[in-house]
Design a protein that fits this description.
Radius of gyration: 23 Å
Number of domains: 1
Distance between the termini: 50 Å
Low-confidence stretches: none
Structural class: mainly beta
Number of strands: 8
Helix content: under 10%
CATH class: Mainly Beta
């Protein structure tokens, strides 16, 4: 911190040393993480790059019920084609990238328009507890 001295107003009053004493204010980041990019890895796997590192109260498995995946406008149903949402690598290794893996082969392919939607109430959050913004990201491959 740099000290400022001898500040005088237009009436000739010098800024008192006690006025230089500031207050330390703790700021807490409160920006909601958002999806920034989809990456097609293979016919069963897509990665979702997020705006910041994430944590999850459920340890390694984020709440898949609050994430919807669409291929060419049709929802990939969890009941018939179960999806596993996890971190890329071990938990915390690359916690800004989520991996979505479908049970069925050929779920995703080049030429598909893939949309990932995060619903309100997801358990996925950043280190300050800011939950992923309810929004979607869509990309043509």
């Amino acid at each position: 911190m740099t000290a400022v001295k001898d500040i005088v107003d237009e009436d000739g009053n010098t800024l008192a040393q006690s006025a230089l004493q500031g207050s330390l204010v703790d700021l807490t980041e409160n920006v909601l993480p958002v999806a920034e990019e989809l990456i097609l890895v293979d016919d069963k796997t897509i990665y979702v790059s997020m705006s910041e590192k994430l944590t999850d109260p459920n340890a390694t498995n984020p709440d898949t019920a609050k994430i919807k995946v669409y291929v060419n406008g049709t929802e990939v149903k969890h009941t018939s084609n179960a999806m596993v949402v996890d971190w890329v690598g071990a938990t915390g290794t690359d916690a800004a990238t989520l991996s979505i893996v479908a049970t069925d082969a050929n779920t995703f392919s080049i030429g598909d328009k893939i949309k990932v939607e995060f619903l309100n109430g997801t358990t996925i959050a950043d280190a300050n507890g800011n939950k992923v913004a309810p929004a979607s990201i869509e990309q043509q491959f």
